[in-house]
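FIELD: query
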Amino acid sequence: MFVIAGHIRIDATNRDAAITGAKEMMDETLKEKGCLHYVISADVGDEGLFHLFEEWESQEALDAHFKSPHMAKFQKSLGSVGVKELKVRRYEVSSVGPLGG
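FIELD: result
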């Protein structure tokens, strides 16, 4: 399994537009084969900050995601929301279990 996690910092005056774009991206991505979890969430304490968390079955599923039409549309829309910082990392997970035992 692969986890993608990070954050996007935008111009806070564009928060509503960013939420609209994030919702569309989430809805389309969750339909993709191999997508286990996908969420873009607006930070409740910082109006210009969004968090990204994804889980994918395989690298092939993730590669297909990057080639999807909605990914291209989302990436293009990032230019209109004034991205100030984009920090996203990929993690390869070898085991998963409950927290605390």
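FIELD: remark
The chain has a mean pLDDT of 95.
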